[in-house]
C-alpha cells in the first residue's frame, strides 16, 4: 500500500512539473518571445526566405520603434510581415535618385550597399514622397502612432508604399536574431 502511495505521489509530482513547464513556455511565447519564419524575398539580402527568427514582443511595450529596426507586424492581408522601419512619427520622407531623405536630410542605408552595387540599370528604390502614398497626410508628415516600413529588396517588397503606414498597435515586436538554419545563426542589423 505504501508503495502505491509513493508511485501516485511521484506521478503527481511529474504531472505538476510538466504542467508548470508548459505554462512557462506558453507565457514566454505569448508575452515575451516567439519564433517566426521569413516568407518571401522582400528583405533580401538581409534576410533569406526560410530564415527562422526570434521576435522580441516586450521591447515595444516599454519603448518605441527606432529607425531601421526590423519589425514584425500584422498586415492588412491577415498575414504577418517582416519589414524595416524607415519613417517615424513626425518625419517627412522622400526618395530621390535612390537616396533616402528624412526631414530633408540625406540618410545612409548601409544595409542596402551590397544590393545597390549589383544593379545594372535603374534604381533600387523608385522616387516617391509620402503624399504620393497617402494624399490624406497632413503636411506630408507621418502622424503620431504610425511608422513607414520598407523591405530591403525594394523592387520586390510589398510595404508601406503599397499597404500604407503601419499602426504601431499592429507591431508584434522587433527581430534581429536568426536561429535557423543553424549555419546562418547571427544577429542582423
Automatic annotation (TrEMBL):
It is a single-pass type II membrane protein. SUPFAM superfamilies: LexA/Signal peptidase (SSF51306). InterPro entries: LexA/Signal_pep-like_sf, Pept_S26A_signal_pept_1, Pept_S26A_signal_pept_1_CS, Pept_S26A_signal_pept_1_Lys-AS, Pept_S26A_signal_pept_1_Ser-AS, Peptidase_S26. It is found in: Cell membrane; Membrane. The keyword Transmembrane helix applies. The chain crosses the membrane at residues 17-38. Residues 11-180 form the Peptidase S26 domain. Pfam families: Peptidase_S26. The keyword Transmembrane helix applies. Its EC number is 3.4.21.89. GO terms for molecular function: signal peptidase activity. It catalyses: Cleavage of hydrophobic, N-terminal signal or leader sequences from secreted and periplasmic proteins. It is an enzyme of class 3 (hydrolase). Keywords: Hydrolase, Membrane, Protease, Transmembrane, Transmembrane helix. PANTHER family: SIGNAL PEPTIDASE I. Belongs to the peptidase S26 family. This is Signal peptidase I. It comes from Lysinibacillus zambalensis. The gene is lepB.
Amino acid at each position: 500500500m505504501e508503495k502505491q502511495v509513493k508511485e501516485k505521489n511521484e506521478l503527481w509530482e511529474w504531472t505538476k512539473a510538466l504542467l508548470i513547464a508548459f505554462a512557462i513556455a506558453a507565457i514566454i511565447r505569448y508575452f515575451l518571445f516567439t519564433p517566426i519564419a521569413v516568407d518571401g524575398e522582400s528583405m533580401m539580402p538581409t534576410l533569406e526566405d526560410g530564415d527562422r527568427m526570434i521576435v522580441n514582443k516586450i521591447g515595444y511595450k516599454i519603448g518605441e520603434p527606432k529607425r531601421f529596426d526590423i519589425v514584425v507586424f500584422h498586415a492588412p492581408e491577415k498575414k504577418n510581415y517582416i519589414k524595416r522601419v524607415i519613417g517615424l512619427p513626425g518625419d517627412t520622407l522622400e526618395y530621390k535618385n535612390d537616396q533616402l531623405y528624412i526631414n530633408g536630410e540625406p540618410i545612409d542605408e548601409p544595409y542596402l550597399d551590397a544590393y545597390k552595387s549589383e544593379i545594372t540599370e535603374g534604381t533600387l528604390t523608385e522616387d516617391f514622397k509620402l503624399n504620393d502614398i497617402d494624399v490624406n497626410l497632413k503636411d506630408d508628415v507621418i502622424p503620431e502612432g504610425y511608422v513607414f516600413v520598407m523591405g530591403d529588396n525594394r523592387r520586390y517588397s510589398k510595404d508601406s508604399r503599397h499597404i500604407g503606414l503601419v499602426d504601431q498597435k499592429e507591431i508584434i515586436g522587433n527581430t534581429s536574431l536568426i536561429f535557423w538554419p543553424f549555419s546562418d545563426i547571427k544577429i542582423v542589423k
